[in-house]
Amino acid sequence: MINTNSTKIAVNKSTVDKLSKKPYEIILLSLIVIACLLLIKPSYLYAKSVLAQVLLKHAWQESQHEYQQEIQPQHQEKDQRNRPWHWADSYPVAKLTYKKKNVSWIIMAGMTGRAMAFAPTWLEDSAKPNQYGNTVISAHNDSHFNVLENSDVGEEFLLEDPQGQILSYRVMTIDIVSQYDISSYLFQDETMITLITCYPFKVTNKAKTQRLVIQAVHVDSLR
After folding, report:
1. Model confidence at 30, in pLDDT bands (50, 70, 90)?
2. pLDDT at 57
3. Residue 82 pLDDT more than 90?
4. Which of 8, 108, 114, 218 lies 20 to 30 Å from 161, alpha-carbon distance?
5. Cβ contacts of residue 85 below 8 Å, gap of 6+?
6. Mean pLDDT across 203-208
7. Burial 78-98 (b: 16+ CB within 10 A, else e)
8. Residue 191 phi, psi dihedral angles, 5° rounding
9. Is 119:105 a contact under the CB 8 Å cutoff?
10. Contact (CB, 8 A) for 166 and 215
11. For domain 40-222, which CATH number applies: 2.40.260.10, 3.30.1330.10, 1.10.8.60, 3.40.50.720?
């Protein structure tokens, strides 16, 4: 009679012996997998931001249609009706266009890390898009706002609100400030936008403790 228990123990012991002889190979394989994931992550994040803009554009068009049909006031829970995906906790509030680069973004409400992973975001405590005051918009510098690295004073941005009103804003100042400097968030006695992103733009493992702040004033306010 064959002792199956003894055989099983022998097989398991043999397997362990083989694995114990190759610890460095296992470690090397693990390092390779981790390296691949690190290389893939930036591409994944960029792809996610691009796909999100496609879904946001659809939600944005729905919002504009509701305003045009004058049915928006009847639906106060706008964020529930026009969410870009079913689990989203935000909704589109504006469309920002950088004329120099001919690129546009749909802006989401709520300056949270979760929302910013998908799109530029609007600080809800600031002025509503195209309303009197300072409208603050922020985005990551390795995705949507990466094109702001070489921005210049005098360039123009277009901001469209859900009602379809499009206003032009001319860049007046570009500053590099500490992440703790909140002066750019404050109310201003004019119609303007403030664009904020992390600085510097170069890839680094160090925490980015500075912010690029671009402030642009409504063109009609300059006349």
Report:
1. low
2. 86
3. no
4. 114
5. 55
6. 78
7. bbeebbbeeebebbbbbbbbb
8. -90, 115
9. yes
10. no
11. 2.40.260.10
Name the burial class of residue 55, with classes exposed (0-12), middle (13-18) and buried (19+) by CB atoms within 10 angstroms of its CB: middle
- Indicate whether 194 pLDDT > 90: yes
> How do residues 61-72 score in pLDDT, each as one tens digit?
888 877 767 655
First to last CA, the chain: 102
Taking the CA atoms of 205, 208, 212 and 213 in sequence, report the sign of the dihedral they define. positive
Q: At residue 195, what is the residue type? A: L
CA atoms lying within 13 Å on the CB side of residue 58: 8
Amino acid identity of residue 198, one-letter, is C
Burial (CB count <10 Å: 0-12, 13-18, 19+), residue 6: exposed
Phi, psi (degrees; rounded to nearest 5) at 51: -60, -40
Question: What is the domain partition of the chain in residue ranges?
Answer: 40-222
Cα distance between residue 184 and residue 127, in whole Å? 13
**Distant-in-sequence, close-in-space partners of 103: CB < 8 Å, separation ≥ 6:** 97, 147
pTM to 2 decimals?
0.73
Give the whole-angstrom CA distance, residue 11 versus residue 31: 29
